[in-house]
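This section describes the prediction task in plain terms. A model, or a person checking by hand, is given the sequence of a single protein chain and must write out its three-dimensional structure as a string of tokens. No templates, partner chains or ligands are provided. The sample shown here is typical of the held-out split.
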Amino acid sequence: MSEAPSTAPVCYRHPSRETLLSCSRCERPICTSCMNDAVVGHHCPDCVKEGRRSQRPARTAFGGSRAGQLGYVTTGIIAVNSLVMIASAVLGGPTAIAGGGGFFGLLGTGTPLTDFGEVLGLATYGGEIHGVAEGEWYRLVTAMFLHYGVVHLLLNMMLVAQVGRYLEGQLGPMRFAALYLLAGLGGNVTAYVFQAPNQPSAGASTATFGLVIATIVINRRLLRDNSSMTSMLVVNLIYTFTIPYISIAGHLGGLVVGGATAFVLAYSRMPHRSIKQAAGCAVILLLIVAAAVVRTTALLS
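The expected answer:
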């Protein structure tokens, strides 16, 4: 005598498995291998995937996404600066690495690459007139990626590595990149405005000073301890004012612009937080460009 066929439902993904369980969302039968625990009942794999697609990604208090935790921008900044230093050393020889004077004789000399990209207002060398006022505006950007020797590079990249990952994790890649570039550009323009036209300067310190003050602003917004960062800032300011051949204007400019940018990023609130942050950064950029235009007009008049 044959048995009556089973009428028990089977898993929609495994037809050979009978089950009395079902997805509490779509009500399809599921086996124990397919079920995913939910607040109420169980969900099938398809409903779990659909829920993940419709779920908004987690954001920090400043709009940063999970991508900022990976530190791609911080790593990229260190890599670009290191590669530029290698190129500068290849073009300038051993003294471009160290032994060129400054900072107890540990800094390197200038090279054809630093001559090309450092901040320079207006000067004659090689029988030609060079400088930002002569139309070489790119110097205001390239100077933040150039260094006079390996020690100069290491000091700045240690700061980037120390605070960059933290800031990128809080702000996200795009906001962190904007902070770094605005601080570096702001410091270079300040050096252009206040230094002698024939006094060159370069280095990522314009940007790193902005990162240090930005960390203080971010920590204050999050009600976190700032004692270590304040001490770091004080030490760097002491170095700025006591060691020769350091661009005081560049460091202070990066500090002010970095602080202003961080304030915009930290204290822009919902709704439309991203729009407010972008608008604030755009205003800062316009002010920086205006200062450079005024300085150029003064040098050429």
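For orientation: The mean pLDDT is 89.
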